[in-house]
Amino acid sequence: MHTDNMLSSLTISQAHEKLKKREITSVELTQSCIDRIESIDKKLNAVVHRNFDRALEEAKKVDDSAEWNSALTGIPYLAKDVYCEAGVKTTGCSNMLRSKDYIPPYDSTTTKRLSAAGAISIGKTNTDEFTMGGSTETSCYGVTRNPWDTNRVAGGSSGGSAAGIASDEALFALGTDTGGSIRQPASFCGIAGIRPTYGRTSRYGVMSMASSLDTIGPICKTVEDLAIVLEAIAGHDPMDGTTSDRPVPKYSGALKKDLKGVRVGLPKEYFIEGLNSDTEHAIREAAKILASLGATVTEMSLPHTKYALATYYVLCPCEVSSNMARYDGIRYGHGVSKPKDLLDYYQRARSEGFGTEVKRRIMIGTYALSAGYYDAYYLKAQKVRTLICEDFTNAFKNFDLIISPVAPSPAFKVGAHVNDPVAMYLEDVFMDGAVMAGIPALSVPCGISKEGLPIGLQMMGPQWGEAGLLSAAYAYEQATEWHTKKPAL
Ligand code: GLN
User: What phi-psi label fits residue 482: left (phi over 0), alpha (psi between -120 and 50 degrees) or beta?
Assistant: First the structure.
């Protein structure tokens, strides 16, 4: 049963107001999330590691110090199981690290910044193995179910984070988006998620999948909450040389902007055959709402869109094949008893430790990077990536914002694509353009299908354009009621 008066159902900004006025304590808020997880997570399988005792201790400290300087002080959150926190089990939902209960010796920059702001980490969420997938079905802990219909997936790879927030198990969650893994699960679960510009948030201490594509971002109940979390975690990090030293705007203070004169593009390549009719209808209605708020909405073209997915599925496995090399059973991961020799040790550690999808990507990537095929695949894909980037650079000369569906349809059934990797890959078709270009993109709820499933609107902005993106999403959200709908669990 969903109870609206449950403290865990508050947004960050609502909880902050109550904490400041001392109407509630962080211990009560944290306990409410713990109770919620204990009562409903059996149905969802969103949370794979629980740090409840430690979280309650932290919350108590926050209550005792009682300084509510940051909007995140005393706010409980969940992190995808790829964020390292010193002393807290983190496994990438892979048998490779699960078999030895990997405990990181250090903190990711993101969780460290959140702790510094007083936020309380309560547990780790389910993900596809090392974030490879679009349904959380490749996790060694089993699938996460969608709170709106438990026969369906919550999306992936940040499926645990999205299902956890949609069902009020915490106030916000961290995800990662390499090829859509924040936006798609957020859209499948009816909540908001943002993939920032590549280099806006630090990847330090987050298990890598594809280093030139990986981004760190929040999944929240509202756009305002996205702004609050993003401004706390964004910014230069000496531990990640790809982060930018541009100052981080105060996103949450700049949300209330008028949409008058904002130029919105509707790319014709994103309205293709196979797009679910309820999804298409919801996106076109969203375009009308943006227009009614003063924006000008015009159809436009991003001509290389059709190559984005194929380019992603060449470049991503190449980087995966190199990043997965560290899991050899010696530096990290699954150990082997009584190996015949060193080669046998490596082979068994890797064949026993990794699941099918990870192995598939290592093989594709190794093949595409090998001497005879490098030019034909990797190099070619890098050139196409540049063309896709140019599409966006040109488009943002005439547009402030580009909108599209996040996914071709609402959440699919558990098992629907497990034996067909290409069908699973095709789910990313509308998200990989932004990935190739390294631009920010978010998902905000924009409808409910006839089957009662949430639909997400994708908004893409120019590099470093998070402030504009968030304020447009905020205006849209305030003009609609989709973000207030909750699953009946
Ligand atoms: N579905 C994409 C993939 O499997 C997205 C992964 C991600 O963003 N982590 O590669």
Answer: alpha
Q: Decide if pLDDT at 129 tops 90.
A: yes
The structural domains of the chain, with segments of one domain joined by +, span: 12-310+378-484
The Cα–Cα gap between 308 and 363 comes to 21
- 120 within 8 A of 74, measured Cβ to Cβ: yes
Q: CB of 134 closer than 6 A to ligand 1?
A: yes
What is the per-residue pLDDT across 276-308, written as a single tens digit (0 to 9) for each?
999 999 999 999 999 999 999 999 999 999 999
Q: Give the model confidence (pLDDT) of 383-397 as tens digits.
A: 999 999 999 999 999
Atom of ligand 1 nearest to the CA of 316: 10
Characterize 135-148 residue by residue with b for buried, 16 or more Cβ atoms within 10 angstroms of its Cβ, and e for exposed.
bbbbbbbebbbbbb
Of 181, 208, 404, 443, which is the active-site residue? 181
* pLDDT at residue 4 tops 60: no
133 lines ligand 1 (CB under 6 A): yes
Q: Is 43 designated active site?
A: no
pTM of the model: 0.97
pLDDT digits (tens, 9 = 90+) for 152-166: 999 999 999 999 999
Instruction: Write down the catalytic residue from 157, 167, 187, 252.
Output: 157
Q: Is there a contact between 182 and 216 (Cβ–Cβ < 8 Å)?
A: no
Domain 12-310+378-484 carries which CATH code? 3.90.1300.10
Q: What is the dihedral of CA 324, 328, 333, 335, to 10 degrees?
A: 150
Read off φ and ψ for residue 457, nearest 5 degrees.
-100, 130
Between the CA of 114 and the centroid of ligand 1 the distance, in Å, is 25
Q: What is the pLDDT of residues 67-116, one digit of tens each?
A: 887 999 999 999 999 999 999 999 999 999 998 889 999 999 999 999 99
CA distance 319 to 310: 15
The candidate with the shortest Cα–Cα distance to 188, out of 15, 378, 445, is: 445
Which alpha helices (H) appear in 324-479, and where do they start and end? 342-353, 356-369, 380-398, 421-426, 432-437, 466-479
